Structures are given as C-alpha cells and as structure tokens.
Amino acid sequence: xxxxxxxxxxxxxxxxxxxxxxxxxxxxxxxxxxxxxxxxxxxxxxxxxxxxxxxxxxxxxxxxxxxxxxxxxxxxxxxxxxxxxxxxxxxxxxxxxxxxxxxxxxxxxxxxxxxxxxxxxxxxxxxxxxxxxxxxxxx
Length: 139
Fold this sequence. Notes:
InterPro entries: DNA-bd_dom_put_sf (IPR009061). With 139 residues, the protein is α+β, with helices and mostly antiparallel strands.
C-alpha cells in the first residue's frame, strides 16, 4: 500500500540532491528516483542529480491531487472492496463526535462490511435527502 509523503519540509527556494530530497520527504532514495522516472523535473542530466524545491513541490502536489477520489453523498469507501460503494438499503447511522460533525456508518452494498465516513453536521440535511439516516449517541 502506498504511504503518504511529507511536503512541509521541502523548501521551494532550495535545491536538493536525491538523498537530501528523500530525507526531507521522509521517503527512500529509490522512491525519489522513481519520482524522477515518473516525470519530476531535474535541473539537468548531469550527476549528481539536482531537483529544485519548487519543481518537487509542483510534482508532489499534482500527484496528491490525482490520488483523491471524491465520493457522492450516498457513497462510502469500502476497505474490503477497495472502491466507493453505495450503502446497503440506502440506510446509515450517524454518530455525532462533536458539535460540528460526526461519523456516518453504513454497510457496503456489495460485501456487507461496515463502512465509515466522517461528515460535517452542516452536510447532514443534504445526506438525509439521499439516505435514511438514524442518529445514534447523545451529542
């Protein structure tokens, strides 16, 4: 499974050699070399390979954006199926965790395992138009 990488330590106005960039992003050197093969720009073709910080940040933020999979209001991500699925019977339970939001629990429509989704309390009326939601808990 792919691990998330850190971008906060990478400075835009600094140049990095491959080991330095690997340390800043908290990944292995092989991972940085794979990023270069995947299209991250380098300064030139000479050794040592140097990557500018702003080029690394552009590449990694684009990569993070491509990995996002937004789901519809009635969909949950099922970890067993590894896909977004509709709730079984269009039913879900809402457990408030704070005043501002809570957790929506439902069963997967395909494999019937439990799926969770954190939502904001302001989104609950819109979700109730699509799903039959029962509130559980005491908040």
